[in-house]
Prior knowledge:
Blueprint: H1 3-18, H2 23-32, H3 47-58
Amino acid sequence: MTDKQIQMLIDLTKKELAESVTKEDAISKLQRAGILDEHGELTPMHKNLGYALAYSLSKD
Length: 60
């Protein structure tokens, strides 16, 4: 993923959190995007995204 794509996902995550989206809705959206698998785990292609999001969200 490019830095721009990672930033877009970070921004989307923050927006979703601010809008009081349910956990189930958020998981469903990430599954439809192919970021999470059917078990709610990051897909192999997106494992590093978890680290990037955790780092970014910890800075706020």
